[in-house]
Structure prediction request, 363 residues.
Amino acid sequence: MKCRKCGDRAILELRRHNAAFCASDFVEFFRNQVREAIRRYHMFERDETVLVAVSGGKDSLALWDVLIDEGYRTTGLYLDLGIFDYSVESRAKCEAFAAKRDVPLLVRRVADEVGAPVPVIKQVTRRPPCSGCGLSKRYLMNRVALDEGLPVVATGHNLDDEAATLFGSVMHWRTEALPRQSPALASTHPKLVRRVKPLFRLSERETAAYAFVRKIDYLVEECPFAVGATSIAHKEVLNRMEDASPGAKHNFLFGFLDRARVAFEQVENVVLNECTRCGQVTTGTLCAFCKLADQVKRSV
Amino acid sequence: MLRNPRREVEVAGNRRVKDVLRELDILPETVLVIRGDELITADQVVAEADTIELRPVMSGGGR
Prediction:
């Protein structure tokens, strides 16, 4: 198989684009997809510092790598979830990357903020571990950005992540979740920062290939709690469809974003308040994060 | 070599990557195929003596 651009031996075939690329032309293709995402959704400007949420995995480190190379000012944020060896190793990958690229990295421990690490939160809440973990991460990303005076948080969500989330929402007709699914969510309150996903045009195989080609030392092992997560079951279904019909995932997500999403948007009459305890944004009086912290405090 | 969990299996060589993947019931979309220090495409032939790594690309959790 030959590179579509230069005719050299290809290292990766992209069936949905009916193309194959050599290493250097693939890197250029990848960067172009990120540029296109940032441009189309006005994700951030040159004079803004981007808080990049990094986990030590391929997606977030690939994202950070591209943004640095594109000349953006970035600060990394690693949230230590306290998930045994997985957290120790993933933190080390982030710290090594930051040192190598000479970029700043902030580290916050969920245990310091919530009162217990994710494995304990899982036991206390008797809910799937991803639930308390996701809640804590979204809250802390926003709060750290505000504390640091940064206007935008970028995460490494890729095409597969977004297609799987959409699939899950449609499977359960969570129509309230559909308008919130977007590669860029604008700030709707002075205490909510913009949230963007510059890798949403790239599949996870492409982000893995980019990380490999760029020799990014990422953690290949997955979070031990991810085993059996519904999002993974949804990804498997979508990969079967992709195999039978290349481009299926892309069409599913992009069709939604370009044509269907608007149909689910409604005049938001939710009132955003500030949490009486921490001051962060909530629809109630005490925010979900503070309720979680209370629950942890009661049982630990 | 397969990852997550890490394990090794022996398969017949002198075949294309896509035939090896089919035998192992692995969708090409879900792995990187690594030989030495480079990625190879599904039409490449794997020699009898070659060792290739099939590295899953799926990450997850959340919701």
Observations:
- Residues 17-23 of chain B form the longest helix (7 residues).
- Chain B touches chain A through 25 residues (CB under 8 Å).
- The beta strands of chain B are 15-16, 31-35, 38-39, 45-46, 52-56.
